[in-house]
Amino acid sequence: MKVALVTGASRGFGAALADALHKQGWTLIVDARDGDALTKAAARWADTTAIPGDVSEPNHREELARAVHRLGRLDLLVNNASLLGPSPQPTLDRYPIGVLASVYDVNVFAPLALTQLALPYLRQAGGILVNVTSDAGVEPYEGWGGYGSSKAALDQLTAILGVENPSIAAYAFDPGDMRTQMHQEAFPGEDISDRPEPETIVPALIRLLETRPQSGRYRAADLLVNA
After folding, report:
1. Is 53 left (phi over 0), alpha (psi -120 to 50) or beta?
2. Could you tell me the residue ranges of all domains in the chain?
3. 9, 18 in Cβ contact below 8 A?
């Protein structure tokens, strides 16, 4: 039995990934802020533990850790839950610091805190940590300073976790643009129908899991080309 914990799994990339893992026989633990959407999504995954909540809340992270403990193992942790911030996104000279702190709570501190709870199980299984990142973490896009800088911080945390924990694989996975609700919120009023569906990006992450290269930062576009 292989066990995966996927955050932000009610829709978008998280739900598409959970679909793929379930088809491969993984046992799933999933969460999302929207409890109704999570319940609807989890109905198609048999033997799945669905726990609604916000990953930035310590009590919720402890509840996820207890679910892992009950199953007795963890082979994969995917920190996919993310917070865009204001829409439309403000430039850094106008970015409310309190709002930026909330973005960092979800995109940086929560993944690290959940990873700290999960690491004993990942080490025992020789498992894999995946932190879902963004090209906004490496490219200076105007208006993306809040979200982008949080993903840059997440990239660095991932890299150091990989060095400090050689028994696991630690990946920052950049899926690129996708046709998701969050991407639509980033471009209010714009037509994003030219962006790929999340389901078309999932095979890149599955390839990463199956080939298990050295820890590091990987782009879906590169993985799909190599495949």
Report:
1. left
2. 3-226
3. yes
Nearest to 2 by CA among 133, 170, 161, 128: 128
Which secondary-structure segment (H or E) carries 218?
strand 216-219
Token pair recorded at residue 68 = 């892992």
Pick the CATH number of 3-226 from 3.40.50.720, 3.30.390.30, 3.40.50.300, 2.40.170.10: 3.40.50.720
The 3-class SS string of 116-161 reads HHHHHHHHHHCCEEEEECCHHHCCCCCCCHHHHHHHHHHHHHHHHH
Give percent above pLDDT 90 in the chain: 85
CA 31/CA 94 separation, integer angstroms: 32
Q: Is 171 helix (H, G, I), strand (E, B) or coil?
A: strand
> How many whole angstroms separate alpha carbon 56 and alpha carbon 150?
14
Mean pLDDT of 149-174: 98
Q: Mean per-residue pLDDT for 102-123?
A: 98
Contact 67, 29 (CB under 8 A): yes
Question: What's the CA gap between 38 and 220, in Å, rounded?
Answer: 25
From the candidates 104, 121, 147, 171, give the one annotated as an active-site residue.
147
- Residue 141 a catalytic site member: no
Beta-carbon count within 10 A of 62 CB = 13
Sheet architecture: strand order including 128-132:
49-52, 27-32, 3-6, 76-79, 128-132, 169-174, 216-219
